[in-house]
Every structure is written in structure tokens, then in C-alpha cells.
Model the fold of this input.
Amino acid sequence: MLLSHDFMFKPYHLDFKHSFFVILLCLFFGRGCLSTHMAGIELAKGVNGLEKIILRESRGSSAEVYLYGGHVTSWKNEQGEELLFVSSKAWFNPPKPIRGGIPICFPQFSNLGPLESHGFVRNKFWSIDTDPPAFPTNSTSKAYIDLILKASEEDMKIWPHSYEFRLRVALGPGGDLMLTSRIRNTNSDGKPFTFTFAYHTYFSVSDISEVRVEGLETLDYLDNLQNRKRFTEQGDAITFEGEVDKIYLSTPTKIAILDHEKKRTLVLRKDGLPDAVVWNPWDKRAKTIPDLGDDEYKYMLCVEAAAIEKPITLKPGEEWRVRQELSTVPSSYCSGQLDPQKVVLGN
Ligand code: TA6
Done:
């Protein structure tokens, strides 16, 4: 019989289908199985007993995703170094959102609409998708998990639309972290819906004053600190000396975050997400954020792949699909010489 101790606890190298099947068994047969170890994927208890999925790649990189929020809270490289920032004061206490990692903003970015800030899916319990559609672009990923969120009656009171939000979180063979979102309008009343969206990624940096962002120079942006007035970025790469909260428009598909102290460049590649938000609260504003340590702004930088300026409209039956891929390379190139292909290939 499949549900034997041998099957459940031996460190078999399971392919994803088998791993997934084991997870299903775990879900069906109780919480005692939740910490079962398997090659590539593990279902475990996180902070405050919230369920999380741990993805591991054979060379040592890993990622963690909470079912609460469909929220990635950890992404580590082969050396076990954490690449995402999570606040030491993060609540992990539903219905409050988790401060750090990769919150998903949907169906509203920030306060650009009537809903709560950044929408509500980051405050919902997602499920493991038992019937994920084919994801051809991620077929090389060994470790991945598919999550799904559907509109509840409660959601429909605040946003009267039926949707299916499918999220795949995948760890590539080189430790790259890929998030693919598929949002479908499942309204049966024939009505379209409109939304804005962001992967609100908090990167971990060694010192914000020493960080440089390349790929956004000379672009237009809306400044959230000045009533979203439109400006054009001047000069070379972006550096940080105070609070920043900008929505860059029509951005390239690749953005690099150079961390001098770590001698590491974080590369964000995106597909279908034209905008990019850059946020750091700096000291004064950080003190007003209860779930962020006073000095923690120094160690975080949000660079967020987004669709904000031109909201997305989906008719019933239509699906919107977007993707974000994060990777790292050693910092060995200079400002103004950003060649994303070289950055990604590391040569
Ligand atoms: O993405 C930047 C931003 O919208 C900022 O304006 C800032 O408020 C931040 O997100 C955090 O929002 P939150 O609702 O998570 O506190």
C-alpha cells in the first residue's frame, strides 16, 4: 500500500508528480505527515504554525512559500545565504500581511482604488492546486509548487468578481526563483473586471546606502511621495540617500540591483509586467511601520515588477499570465554597462 512508512519517510528521489502525490496524502491523512522530507519539496510548519512549502534544489538553493498569502518568504542561494528580506517584526498573524518576502498585490496596487492597500490576496489562505494547467516555460524546474486562490463569498462582498488566481513558484537548476501568475476571469454574469498587480519583492541588501539599481535610469516615473506626479529619472544608476517610493513606467524586462558589500548582483527579469516600483521607507517612515524594525530599512530594498499605470481588464473566460524570475550573479560590471544577457549568464 502506498501509505506505508517506507514510502512516506525514506529519502527517495521523487519526481514532482510523486512528491505532489505525497503532499496530497499528507493533506488527506493528517498533520503528522506535514514535516515529511522529500527530494525537492517539503510541507512544513512555519511561524505561528502557518503551513509552508519548502522547495530545495540539489545544489543547495531553496525557497519557502506560505499558503497564507501565497507568500514567498525565503529564497536562499547555494551557500544558504538569504536573498530576500523579512522583517524581524513580521507578524505572521492572519489577516495581517507578512512584512517582507514577496507579497502579491492583487486586485489593487497600493491605495489606487477602493480596496485595502495592495488588495486582499496577500491576506488569504491559498490552496495547493491539485489540477494545475501545463506551464511549458518552467518545464526544466525540478522543484515547484502550484497554488490556487478562488474568490470567496467574503471577497465578493468587497470586490464583486469571480476569479481564479494560479501561482507557480519554481526553483530553477541554478537556484533561480520563478513566479508565474495566471489570473482568470470566471464571472458568470458576463462582466469584465479590471485590476492592478505587483510582485512586491523585498530584497535583502547589506547596506541600502551602498546599493545601486540599474535599468531604470532616464525612465519616467510617478512619485508616490509627491502625489504621483510624473518625473523623468536623471543621471546614471539609481542610488539611495533617503525615502524613495516611485513607480517607474514602461520599464525594460531586466533590472539589476548591485550590492557592493556582498559583491553580488540580484537580477529581476519580468514578462508581462511593464512597471517597476522602487521603495525604501528610510529612517523616519520606518519608525511609523509597526512591523518593521527602526533600522531595518538599511537592509531591504523593494523592487516590484508590476502592472499599475495601465490597469488590466479581463473579460469572462480570459486569462492573464505574467512571470518574474530572480537570479544572482557576482557584481563585476560597471554602471551604464548593463547588458542583462551578460548579467544573467554571468560573463
Ligand atoms: O510598493 C510601495 C508601497 O506601496 C509603499 O507606498 C509602501 O506603503 C509599501 O508599499 C508598503 O505597503 P504595505 O501596505 O505593505 O505597508
In short: The chain has a mean pLDDT of 87. Helices lie at 5-9, 16-29, 153-158, 282-286, 340-345.
